[in-house]
Amino acid sequence: MKQLLLSTALVASGAFSFSAQAGELDPQLQAKLDQAQFLYDHGYYQEALKHIQWLFNNGIATDYDFAPHQVSIITWWAAMRDHHESARISYDRAVKDTITQLKRAPHNCAAFDDVEVMMENKHALEDFVTVLENETTEHPQIWQRCWGYSTSLIAVEQTSKPLIDAYLVDLSDHFKAEFIPVIDGLYSQCDDDVDYREPCQDSVIEYLTGVSTSFRHAAMTHYGLHEAGQIGGLTVQLRLKWQAQNN
């Protein structure tokens, strides 16, 4: 469930910008991206790895519009870890190097985003949280500039009190201000496709339920029944709003 929720959050926060940026890349960069995908899709992993590593290191520096594609590059690289030893070694080395880079320059939000996605794809979110907690203990709110929707969800799912206290502050207020509008927006977008409207709405309802459950669990673990009840109440209010809209 935790991996599914995070993946959905990344889609929610990044998919629309990805589609908006598609086709706007520098032509040479787009060609490298297309070639990397072709090689990856057809199992030419060693050749694909060379392109993926180059894109990972140079894509955003070459054209900032590449940023939404960085998730795909990391995902392909991570997927090759089980099939290609060079991919596993280089990926793990890149994770360590990027973490080191992030610690040395906490303001580097590109590195922050890369570490988050790389650790998710490695199924090591606990380790990602440990890195954040250790640095936050010494330097409170050191990551504030880079903090976002998906990172908040990671902190909640991992029930990390140090990160919640530092970056979310109040769980129910954060849920209301940062998550309710995003999820409500996803539900509204279901109206864009009449044929898919009901399945889309069902998937958003399921997503709301999962996120709310994670928030309420974290609230009960660290802050008590009252805080969990507030989150539950906000969840019910949103469901009632959707029900009224449908009627």
> What gap, in angstroms, lies between the N and C termini?
31 Å
| Quaternary structure state of the chains depicted | single chain
Task: Name the overall outline.
Answer: globular
Give the ordered list of helices and strands. Answer: HHHHHHHHHHHH
Count of helical stretches: 12
Largest sheet: none
Low-confidence stretches: 1-22
Could you estimate the helical fraction of the residues in percent? over 70%
Measured by DSSP, the beta-strand proportion falls in under 5%
DSSP summary, beta strand count:
0
Mean pLDDT: 89
- Helix/strand structural class: mainly alpha
**From the alpha-carbon coordinates, what is the Rg to the nearest angstrom?**
19 Å
What does this structure look like?
With 247 residues, the protein is mainly α. 79% of the residues lie in helices and 0% in strands. The protein is built from twelve helices and no strands. The protein has helices spanning 2-21, 27-41, 45-62, 70-79, 85-104, 109-121, 125-138, 149-157, 161-168, 171-189, 197-222, 225-246. It starts with a helix and ends with a helix. Mean pLDDT is 89; it is low at 1-22.
